[in-house]
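Saturday, quiet lab. Running sequence design on the structure tokens for the scaffold JK sent over.
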């Protein structure tokens, strides 16, 4: 029959167009460059347009309409012909829920492996047959959809959750309004894999939560997926906004802590979890482009909790969280659906953000003089201490040297700066440090008398309440509770950076109560003095190795840089190597033999830790504690009575070369012109 021949020809055309789309890649159908034009698939474009019109879908013509048609058709085909549906889905979409970031070749390889066909010719034949079957199914699917639309034109289906049924005032709502159908997905949060996949595919993200526990881990997984899929090591979201609720509101939440019968302990754990996750999320985001992310704090309980994903094709996906008061996060329910064309859910998320306040902390900047810090202005936290920024000025910081007395033996406690705890100096050991922020020094009485005004004190010293509040705040954050005893002022020190603002440290000391146990997530460790020496020795060797590869410097600066490297090696008894480095003229680098020796020793002395079963290559001590180890940290340990500290000081004090090296290093490290000219941190 002539009509049957025409239908067969149409199906053949569509099958060929499907094959062409597969080769091009579903996301590249409309690409127009100097060597590529939009793919000519007229029958598929016609079917997709008819389907979008019948469904009342507000999608741009082209790729978006074709993708929606293929996905919806595959969902129906899955129930009737699962093998063909799964094969075609693998060829076009893989496991992507929205934007396909894998290439056509990668999808083809994966689909072939999943099919189990080792023979290339047999797999090609099966693929072609599946395209023909799918083409016929597509034609019928669109025709059925069109007929359904004609039948329901007067009484359109109500949207999910509208409360309006067919025949109940439905005639008052014509097609193509907010009452088009929306597909929805529900399920348990589980391991969060679906959430991570949506995060990886999204362009813009808004997240509203209470404590946002485990969010930092999911963000890291999603960004790794995004970068691997796009093959861009610096890929990031166009924007990501995250809302936490304020600490005061945490007391009004009573859920997710069934293992704590004491309400006070449950509240404490909730506060600690919120602090930990906000810090971890902040540390993660600080490693990304500062203009593309923001953290907010909501002073009100949000009207909704969940996530708004804006996808590359312009679509918006909403995932709402339905919490159960006596279940943990993996057992919460989620409801996922597409936003309406008027973006009601988007507006609700936007309203939560507008009602919140930015979590950007305000930090004073200024200059140090005679042990005091003189303020000259303020900056937002994300804008300070950016590597390579070239910013000038000084930032005040507190450092709390913590220790405990165990069985009569004083033990220093240092924190391992992992990715969940810090944005800078990762995998280094440090006593607790923190920026001084506006909340630490703000005069509360003046603030109440002059609301809206930010009062910056003229100067800080160790006795000022601002730095001491910052030290207490930092200590309390790790301990998750208010600790007894005094935080004792010790001294102030300067730290010069080559490529960003300098740091002025206010140093305090604190002895933990004998029976106090720090939370495991604080990652605080007792490191015996011999181990600390070994860690610093390896750090000095790696600094010298970095200097071997440093960019060009003037002869005077290069000679001083090698002197610093040599003096540090001398203090760890690499006497001959240190002597050769310190004798180098400014126009000459170390010999190949010395370079090889430095690298060999650096590799031999490298320190590896296994906190929580994860291997960590230690980078050494954090900046000030490395540079001032012999002038500040070791004498302080001796004052505490740390085993071996006083003896080591005495030995070094009796060695003239060591005394001279310590004195000369102190002088060089305080030379601002020199330290800002050396392109690596020594």
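Result came back. Writing it out in full:
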């Amino acid at each position: 029959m002539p009509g049957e021949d025409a239908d067969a020809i149409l199906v053949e055309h569509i099958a060929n167009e499907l094959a062409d789309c597969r080769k091009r890649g579903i996301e590249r159908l409309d690409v127009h460059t100097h060597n590529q034009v939009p793919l000519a698939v007229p029958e598929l474009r016609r079917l997709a347009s008819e389907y979008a019109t019948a469904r009342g879908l507000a999608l741009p013509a082209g790729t978006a309409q074709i993708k929606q048609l293929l996905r919806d058709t595959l969902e129906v085909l899955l129930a009737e012909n699962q093998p063909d549906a799964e094969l075609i889905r693998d060829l076009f979409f893989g496991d992507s829920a929205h934007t396909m970031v894998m290439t056509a070749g990668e999808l083809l390889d994966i689909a072939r492996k999943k099919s189990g066909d080792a023979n290339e010719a047999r797999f090609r034949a099966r693929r072609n047959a599946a395209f023909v079957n799918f083409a016929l199914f597509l034609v019928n699917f669109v025709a059925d959809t069109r007929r359904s639309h004609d039948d329901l034109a007067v009484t359109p289906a109500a949207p999910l959750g509208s409360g309006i049924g067919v025949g109940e005032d439905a005639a008052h709502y014509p097609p193509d309004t907010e009452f088009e159908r929306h597909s929805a997905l529900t399920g348990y949060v589980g391991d969060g894999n679906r959430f991570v996949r949506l995060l990886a595919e999204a362009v813009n993200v808004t997240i509203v939560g209470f404590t946002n526990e485990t969010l930092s881990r999911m963000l890291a997984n999603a960004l790794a997926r995004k970068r691997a899929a796009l093959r861009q090591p610096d890929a990031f979201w166009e924007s990501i906004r995250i809302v936490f609720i304020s600490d005061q509101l945490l007391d009004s939440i009573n859920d997710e802590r069934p293992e704590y019968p004491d309400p006070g302990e449950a509240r404490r754990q909730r506060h600690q979890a919120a602090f930990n996750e906000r810090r971890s999320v902040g540390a993660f985001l600080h490693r990304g482009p500062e203009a593309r992310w923001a953290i907010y704090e909501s002073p009100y309980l949000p009207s909704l909790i969940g996530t708004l994903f804006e996808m590359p094709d312009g679509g918006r996906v909403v995932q709402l969280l339905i919490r159960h008061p006596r279940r943990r996060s993996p057992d919460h329910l989620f409801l996922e659906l597409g936003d309406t064309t008027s973006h009601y859910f988007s507006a609700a998320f936007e309203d939560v953000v507008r009602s919140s306040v930015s979590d950007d902390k305000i930090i004073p900047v200024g200059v140090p003089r005679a042990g005091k810090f003189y303020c000259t202005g303020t900056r937002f936290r994300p804008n300070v201490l950016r590597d390579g920024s070239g910013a000038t000025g000084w930032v005040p910081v507190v450092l709390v040297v913590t220790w405990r007395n165990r069985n009569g033996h004083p033990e220093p406690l240092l924190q391992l700066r992992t990715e969940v705890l810090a944005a800078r100096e990762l995998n280094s050991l440090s006593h607790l440090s923190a920026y001084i922020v506006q909340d630490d020094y703000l005069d509360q009485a003046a603030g109440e008398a002059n609301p809206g005004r930010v009062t910056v004190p003229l100067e800080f010293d160790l006795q000022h309440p601002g730095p001491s509040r910052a030290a207490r705040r930092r200590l309390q954050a790790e301990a998750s509770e208010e600790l007894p005893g005094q935080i004792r002022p010790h001294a102030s020190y300067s730290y010069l950076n080559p490529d960003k603002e300098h740091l002025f440290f206010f140093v305090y000391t604190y002895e933990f109560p004998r029976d106090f146990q720090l939370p495991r997530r604080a990652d605080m460790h007792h490191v015996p003095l011999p181990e600390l020496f070994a860690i610093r020795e390896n750090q000095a060797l790696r600094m010298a190795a970095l200097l071997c590869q440093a960019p060009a410097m003037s002869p005077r600066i290069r000679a001083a840089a090698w002197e610093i490297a040599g003096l540090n090696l001398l203090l760890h008894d690499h006497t001959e190597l240190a002597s050769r480095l310190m004798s180098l003229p400014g126009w000459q680098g170390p010999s190949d033999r010395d370079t090889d020796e430095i690298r060999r020793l650096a590799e031999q002395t490298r320190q590896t830790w296994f906190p929580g079963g994860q291997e960590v290559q230690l980078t050494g001590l954090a900046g000030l504690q490395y540079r001032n180890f012999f002038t500040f940290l070791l004498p302080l340990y001796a004052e505490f009575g740390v085993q071996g500290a006083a003896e080591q000081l005495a030995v070094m004090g009796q060695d003239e070369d060591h005394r001279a090296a310590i004195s000369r290093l102190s002088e060089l490290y305080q030379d601002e012109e020199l330290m800002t000219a050396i392109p690596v941190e020594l």
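Notes for JK: Residues 2-172 form one domain. The mean pLDDT is 82. Ask whether to fix the surface positions before the next round.
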